Amino acid sequence: MSAHTAQTELKLIGKLILEGEMHCETGLHIGAGKGSLEIGGADNPVVKDSHGRPYVPGSTLRGRIRALLEQATGAAVPSELVYISKRKGQEVRIHQSDRPDDEICILFGRSPGRMEKVGGGDLESNHATPARLSVFDAPLVAESITPQMRESLDDELTEVKSENAIDRITSQANPRTLERVPAGARFRFRMVLDMLCPEDVVLPGLLTQGLRLLEDDTLGGGGSRGSGRVRFGDLRLVWRGRDFYASGAAEREIATGVDLAGLQAKVQETGEGLIA
After folding, report:
1. Would residue 120 be called left, alpha or beta, if left means φ above 0 and alpha means ψ between -120 and 50 degrees?
2. Partners of residue 77 on adjacent β-strands
3. pLDDT at 37 over 50
């Protein structure tokens, strides 16, 4: 449990900036959710920017880290899950509580108001908690799609994976296609962690835990069918205190060129000195 209490005062101490690359170990499918199909296109296209290049939305990465941390910390239980959408077949449930020391809600934020609990009843939240973590859209590193890879791709930057579901009674086939960013592609990501009180020193460790969980899980669609395995590398973590913004003081480099294991070790080694 964290040391946060209802009396904890919030005032910006500084920001931790985490940047690096996310490597696709297998094909990656982040669905675009198109309502119509293009002739000759895949049934399930990936999300692309205005230039037609695939990217990983910050909301996708942030949401997956949150879900994994909720499971790992035992927060994904009916008594602490609330509905944020109850559309039939598309129910969305997340963890939320009113406890001031709830690290998940501190890291990802908490909205005030009445929310329906999955276990029954309502959660009445009278105060908002500002989200400490911001996750930005991760653009594709164009050079990671090599000329050799392009020769085998169905599109300039993506591949199409064919899948087939078989009816267990009639043996009737239900073929489908899935557009994916190919294995070997890389994305540049950036995360900013606001430190608003000394008690927030536990949050960098929670974030690195979530990233390590993701490396042994999946991102995006088709994870149970082979898609979505990622790895983080070439990581750089810097500290920018309040004086960085107020008077142009220099930032402090905490780690550079490390993998997740190295980053986690550095965060644990630095401890409370991380935000000093």
Report:
1. left
2. none
3. no
Given a cut of 60, whether residue 42 has pLDDT beyond it is no
Neighbours of 84 (CB within 10 A): 13
Nearest to residue 196, comparing CAs of 3, 10, 7? 10
DSSP string computed for the chain: -----TT------EEEEEEEEEEESS-B--B---SS--TT--SBPBPB-TTS-BEE-HHHHHHHHHHHHHHHTT--SGGGEEEEE--TT--EEEE----TT-HHHHHH-B--EEEEBTTSSEEEE-S-B---EEE--EEB-GGGS-HHHHHH-SSSS-EEEEEEEE-TTT--EEEEEEEEBPTT-EEEEEEEEEE-SGGGGGHHHHHHHHHHHHHTS--SS-GGGT---EEEEEEEEEEEEHHHHHH-PPPEEEEEEE-HHHHHHHHHHHGGGGG-
Percentage of the chain surpassing pLDDT 90?
64
pLDDT given for residue 115 in this prediction? 72
CA atoms of 191 and 134, how far apart (whole Å)? 6
The amino acid that residue 99 corresponds to is R
Q: Which amino acid is it at 167?
A: D
Reported as a single tens digit per residue, the pLDDT across 49-73 is 999 999 999 999 999 999 999 999 9
